[in-house]
Amino acid sequence: MEQADVIIVGAGHGGAQAAIALRQNGFEGHILVIGREPEIPYERPPLSKEYLARTKTFDRICIRPAQFWEDKAVEMKLGAEVVSLDPAAHTVKLGDGSEIGYGRLIWATGGDPRRLSCMGADLKGVHAVRTKEDADRLMSELDEGAKRAVVVGGGYIGLEAAAVLTKFDVQVTLLEALPRVLARVAGEALSKFYQAEHRAHGVDLRTGAAMDCIEGDGTKVTGVKMQDGSVLPADIVIVGIGIIPCVSPLLSAGASGGNGVDVDEFCRTSLPDVYAIGDCAAHTNDFADGTVIRLESVQNANDMATTAAKDICGEPVPYKATPWFWSNQYDLRLQTVGLSTGHDNAVLRGDPAARSFSVVYLQGGKVIALDCVNVVKDYVQGKKLVEARAQLSPEQLADASVPLKELVA
């Protein structure tokens, strides 16, 4: 049986960074990365931004060139999927029936796009934007002349895809079931700003929108039927309604978890010698008042990867990283630091009409997060306020003439 000292399951941001961090921390054993996709590790965020917009080619979104992995003696087994594991025997089984033994296992599989459950969800022309293959298929249909798109979901993926599609002279309708876009991750001020921006760019953005099903001609999508009976003509439908963490093999093997797999402060699961990192890892987070959450971000995947690698190398350092995120839409650069969930006050800093402003989120008078639109200095300086849980008055924070660094105690 083939054997590896460390098997990394998943070749995304987390898996790639885990391999890199192991070598950086002096690990000299055999590292095997098993990836479901045929490509070497690449960045996912550009799939709904620069790659879809064709301003970046695939080679420019690869996390490292192919030669790097050879130079670092990191073996890649691509186009392969782990379907089960035996924690007692320390083996994983692949889809082709083969088994591989491991000393340590890092589970970095992320998640699969949540699919619509309505009729017509499997028609040709219905897309997710999670993999290079997804984006390539969508781009191919645009090349074939698709001109009417319906985007389902007003989160970051949906909004970013809508912004890109407008550049291709596509008629875009965006449907969000909740009363506002970004409702789960941002305050009303930011939601209203982005809604206005998308509408100004020609997107027919509808909130509180209840769809019924997807209509087609038997093979390909032709429209989206709403619950009021109206039909939105569509050549393509993009679905961005979240992900489902890929953890079934771990849970079936007895790992603790549910919505993801549970990990401790060193990213260790309840299974011996098995770690989990990134989107699929449910962990206690200090920036969420100590509640157990999953964080779907590059930052989280990379920092958890380093935490797991250090533990494997005998230098355990608890995961305490500050959460951060970003989104590019049109000429707007949104940068977020901290977690705004549970905020009881939101302070507007600057003027949205100038398309450069920040929203500072408070909980009990303490700064817990910032959303910064085209204001890099607020993002950089605000991070220290979030980390310090700085207690500041709304009046102090609202005065954009005073740099945030001057408010750090």
Can you describe what's shown?
The protein starts with a strand and ends in an 11-residue tail after the last helix. 24% of the residues lie in helices and 32% in strands. It has helices at residues 13-24, 50-53, 58-61, 66-71, 132-143, 156-166, 188-200, 248-252, 298-312, 376-388, 394-398, and strands at 2-9, 31-35, 74-78, 82-86, 91-94, 99-107, 111-113, 126-127, 148-152, 171-176, 204-207, 211-216, 221-226, 231-233, 236-239, 243-245, 257-258, 260-262, 274-276, 281-285, 291-293, 324-329, 332-338, 345-351, 356-363, 366-373.
Task: Describe the structure using short key phrases.
11 helices; 409 residues; single chain
Uncertain segments: none
Quote the beta fraction.
25-35%
Please describe the biggest sheet, giving its number of strands, its sense, and whether it closes into a barrel: 7 strands, mixed
Tell how many strands the DSSP assignment holds. 26
- How large is the radius of gyration? 22 Å
Mean pLDDT: 96
Number of helices: 11
Overall 3D shape = globular
Helical content stands at 10-25%
Which oligomeric form is depicted?
single chain
Structural class: alpha/beta
Please report the distance between the alpha carbons of the first and last residues: 59 Å
